[in-house]
Amino acid sequence: MIYVRSLRFRMMLLFSIVVGSLMAVSYLGFYALLAREVRAQVDRQLLEAAGPVVADLNSDPTDEDVSQFNLPDEYFEILEPSGRVLQQSRNLRTRPLSIGVQPLDSSRIAFRTLEDGDRGRLRLALVPLVPRPGSGVRILAFALSTRDADLVLGRFRRLVLVLLPFSLLVTALVSTWYVGRSLRPIAELTRRAVDTTERVGSPGRQALWTPLTVSNPPDEVGLLAETFNRLFVRVDSALGQLRQFVSDASHELRTPLSILQGETELLLAEPRSIDQYQKTLGLIDEELKKLSRIVEGLFTLSMADAGQLRLARDPLYLNEVLEEACERISARARAKNIDIERALAQEVAYLGDETFLRQLFLIFLENSVKYSPPHTCVRVEVRTVDSRVRISFEDQGTGISKEHLPRIFERFYRVANPEAGEAQSGGLGLAIAQAIIRSMGGSIDSESTLGRGSVFTLNLPLPPPGASGTS
Predict the structure, then answer these.
(1) pTM
(2) What's the mean pLDDT in 251-265?
(3) Would you say residue 457 lies in a domain?
């Protein structure tokens, strides 16, 4: 029952029925054409054989040679239009032709097919003769056996009875092979999809999808297989990133939670002085703020992934928002003797979300200050180029190697710190920055040289002239 419901069987059955019907109609058409041609050939043979007799009877109406004819499988009669026999060949004297008694048409040549008992099937030609003086119209009836013609048609029928089932069998075999070959990628896709479904819930990190070999990429099934290959490669990559993200997020959250738990247990273990309480609460507050930043970052990224990051479009000046961000980071920069050099004289009108823009600028300013050594400079510049505004952050920090630079926007991506001798987490800052700027229709360019510093450039599209802000 399962095989009967399979697409392969239904396609093979449909193909066989359609082709079998076409072949049956074709064979019937060929048989009809052959039968008509054979009958026409017999009629021509009748007229050719009757020609000399008709000519002789027309030249000598009183001649009665017809009664002397006794040729095998050839039968002659001279009839009146009423059907009365005037003369007949000798081989008809025991029993005349079964023409019937209905009036005969004496105005034209007519042909009939007779079933005449032991004589078998006969083809009859009725040829009007020239009237005799003083008498009515006469008709020559000349009949030939159709044994040879029936033999040809019988052989063709038997040939068709053999060829049609054989053709159907060959059609079924060919269609089964071809349909099976055409659907093989789909069957393989199904098997691979089942394996992939089982691997999704299985422990361990293993490839979800083994690329399917496509024998005929241009056709529809080949394109489907290629699409599945690309789809599952991306799904595999996304699932791997998700697992890594969950692992990294757990690691990032575990550290402040462990500190909070340890400090709380220590605080509750025995009475403390007010100074110790204040110091511990300050540490707890700092870790709670760190947890809040991580959770808020994860929420922002989840909203961006879902396409639900809602940004306001309020009129503002980018240079003013950037100046405010620089002021917020200046205290941390002064603590490391880092000078923030600003080139923000140009006023740049913009329609955007001030909160997200400030967060975006602070991410790059904090990174520049964090990874720059003391007594260096961080340069911030804003300028317009054509229909875009470019905001660059240039530092003199440790820099990022070329192999790590393309991946620094991944969430919690870790870069080896040669100075500390350990892996350093990039956190969520740059991932959040990329999500924000993509929601604004912009992009980020990054350049870095080890030991010399990095330059991050934000490219934001300027609103068209006359655009108004809407929230």
Answers:
(1) 0.51
(2) 77
(3) yes
